[in-house]
């Protein structure tokens, strides 16, 4: 079994995110980050099946400002599709994490 480069940290962080796609423009969704690392996260969410090549904009509450994290749907590396064409979670690969996100992860590791 292949070992991850970055160890996943189990968490339970409520987030909000937007799906930027002409079919689903500006829809706000809610989810919970179940685990994360410096380069990825798994978001538990009950929502529609995401079309590829859409932009997801994630807002993570942290400090006073929060962390804004854009990711492209093509970076989704895992999703569990349910029979009604919805999904219950997505795994996202973060290719260039912003400094604020890395601080957020480090803060969680320290606690």
Key phrases:
mainly beta, Thrombin, subunit H, seven-stranded antiparallel sheet, 1 helix, 7 strands
List the helices and strands and how they pair.
Elements: E1 9-20, E2 27-37, E3 40-48, E4 55-60, E5 67-72, E6 76-81, E7 86-93, H1 99-110
Antiparallel strand pairs: 1-2, 1-4, 2-3, 3-7, 4-5, 6-7
Strand order of the largest sheet: 5-4-1-2-3-7-6
CATH topology name: Thrombin, subunit H
Calculate Rg over CA atoms. Answer: 14 Å
Number of strands: 7
Helix content, binned percent: 10-25%
Helix count?
A: 1
Major sheet size, sense and barrel closure: 7 strands, antiparallel
Number of domains: 1
Low-confidence stretches: none
SSE pattern, N- to C-terminal: EEEEEEEH
Describe this protein's structure.
The chain is mostly beta strands and 111 residues long. It has a single domain (9-105), classed as predicted glycosyltransferase like domains (Thrombin, subunit H), CATH 2.40.10. It is 11% helix and 52% strand. It has one helix and seven strands; from the N terminus they run βββββββα. The protein has one helix at 99-110; strands spanning 9-20, 27-37, 40-48, 55-60, 67-72, 76-81, 86-93. Strands 5-4-1-2-3-7-6 form a seven-stranded antiparallel β-sheet. A hairpin with a 4-residue loop joins strand 6 and strand 7. The radius of gyration is 14 Å and the shape is globular. The termini are far apart. The mean pLDDT is 79.
């Amino acid at each position: 079994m292949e070992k991850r480069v970055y160890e996943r940290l189990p968490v339970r962080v409520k987030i909000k995110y937007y799906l930027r796609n002409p079919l689903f423009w500006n829809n706000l969704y809610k989810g919970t980050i179940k685990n994360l690392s410096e380069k990825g996260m798994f978001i538990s969410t009950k929502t529609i099946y995401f079309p590829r090549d859409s932009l997801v904009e994630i807002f993570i509450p942290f400090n006073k400002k929060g962390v804004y994290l854009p990711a492209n749907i093509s970076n989704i590396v895992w999703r569990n599709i349910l029979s009604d064409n919805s999904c219950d979670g997505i795994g996202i690969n973060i290719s260039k994490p912003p400094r604020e996100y890395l601080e957020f992860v480090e803060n969680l590791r320290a606690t």
